Amino acid sequence: MTTQEVSEPTQVAWLRFLRAHAAITRELSSRLEALHELTLSDYDVLVQLYFAPERRMRRIDIARSVLLTASGITRLLDGLEGCGLVEKARCDSDARVTYAVLTDAGVKKVEEARDSHLADIEELFGAQFEPKERRQLAELLGRLPLAHTSEACSP
Amino acid sequence: MTTQEVSEPTQVAWLRFLRAHAAITRELSSRLEALHELTLSDYDVLVQLYFAPERRMRRIDIARSVLLTASGITRLLDGLEGCGLVEKARCDSDARVTYAVLTDAGVKKVEEARDSHLADIEELFGAQFEPKERRQLAELLGRLPLAHTSEACSP
DNA sequence: GAGCTAAACTTGAGATCGCAAGGATCATAG
DNA sequence: CTATGATCCTTGCGATCTCAAGTTTAGCTC
């Protein structure tokens, strides 16, 4: 124990969680930006679309799955549309909703960025753990509130 | 397996890590803001100072321990100084450094905010785990890069 | 002690994101 | 069919934070 008097395991765990997040996302972001000109959030959204049926989603569903605000998604998609990675599409049955559809360029972009990014995640995150520990960690993290929003899609 | 074809445990764990961070910090922030008018980072810095020897730290050390940029710390401390929670102090042996010192009001603020914030952390984070799992999780997270910067202070 | 490099800090500019408010559309109830 | 409330999306505004550049001071070397 050093500076922190209180070393309740929960607090220690939370502190490490916070710091690790800051450190890892900073590094991941910077690499992703350098190699592919994408934000972590950009990539996140692109991948959601990539695996969505017909590669399209309502903006609100994107927001919920990546845990951003609706307004955050609007502006993020503005950027991706500007790059031609994503297009808007109207919804016939409901004029309020606009779909975001991955373009061919978008598909290509995901496939280009995927390998290096997954390798980075492996290096900065996964590599610290044995296979068994990875599953264990995934299970533990899965209990946290909203930890698996992106693992379920609304129709 | 739902939308994500690739369910390598590492990727699942990382995704959950990301989402859980977003969800929990959003909620913690909002409560902290509502009750005590503090950002999560504000609180973080205040606590670092609270446990530092003489309740003072060089700005650069604060930056390293909470994983913010030097410029981030400058502006964050501007705010805390404006509220009277922190003061500047010059360093006799090195004119380049400015210390940040917790004021009495700052001490009080930390002690006021502490209980509710720790309770929030317990509720949103710790409560999902058994005591044994908490230690396990802390250990696992501790292996991540820079996860315990705040557990060691430079002189 | 003059010059050089490195460190600590600040500042300006820009990016990202949330909140609050507003507009459009749908769905339901009367 | 109209009124009400909810949902989807966008926009204005502000807050936070980073990066790059600049200033001042230390510490070294020659």
Q: Could you explain how this protein is built, in words?
A:
2 copies of one chain form a homodimer. Chain A has 155 residues and is mostly helical. Chain A has one domain: Winged helix-like DNA-binding domain superfamily/Winged helix DNA-binding domain (Arc Repressor Mutant, subunit A), CATH 1.10.10. Chain A is 61% helix and 8% strand. Chain A is built from 6 helices and 3 strands. Chain A has helices at residues 9-36, 40-51, 59-66, 70-82, 104-124, 131-142; strands at residues 56-58, 86-90, 98-102. Chain A has a 3-stranded antiparallel β-sheet. Chain A is globular. The N and C termini of chain A lie far apart (50 Å). The relative contact order of chain A is 0.13. The interface between A and B is large, with 58 and 57 residues. The structure holds a DNA duplex (30 and 30 nucleotides).
